[in-house]
Amino acid sequence: MSAPVTRLMLVSHARTDAMHTGRFPGDEPLDDAGQRDLAAVTDPPRVDRVLSGPETRSISTAQRFGSNISVEPGLADIDYGRWSGLEMTDLPDADAMGWLSDPAFVPPGGESLDALFSRVETWLSTVGSTPGRTLAVTSPAVVRAVVIVVLEAPVSSFWRIDVFPLTLTALGRRGGVWTVGSVAQKFV
User: Distance (Å, rounded) from C-alpha 128 to C-alpha 120?
Assistant: First the structure.
């Protein structure tokens, strides 16, 4: 008897104003371009379940892929704390360098990359024990973290993966081992 297979499709939420202007996001809606791009998705993949991060932008995107959506705290975007709404150039140089070079660095009132990776790893072990096809809508940061965890790459690799709005990253798990099928494929 073969081992059960888990198929995981991670969808990066559609575009928001913060993505367009290069700001750290807060809980914000999709912008007009994001809504148009989402409406252009005419052939969503067939799945057994749809999960979403708790942010408005993720839930709005997830609604395009199913009506019975489970909100998962483990899929939440990294918490940027008091940096939400700021651009990287608004930060003191020491903070910007700390953020880009030290995975334990915590933005004021926020979450470190190390904490994000720990949360993602826990979520992956849970979703990996559920056979079938799962589509999960989340932020680009979470998608990058998942890929790095699956590849067992160092956290410092976080900044070397581009995940654009409304893209699909496909993974599979059989016999307790995850594999990456594709990263950041465009829907439209």
Answer: 12
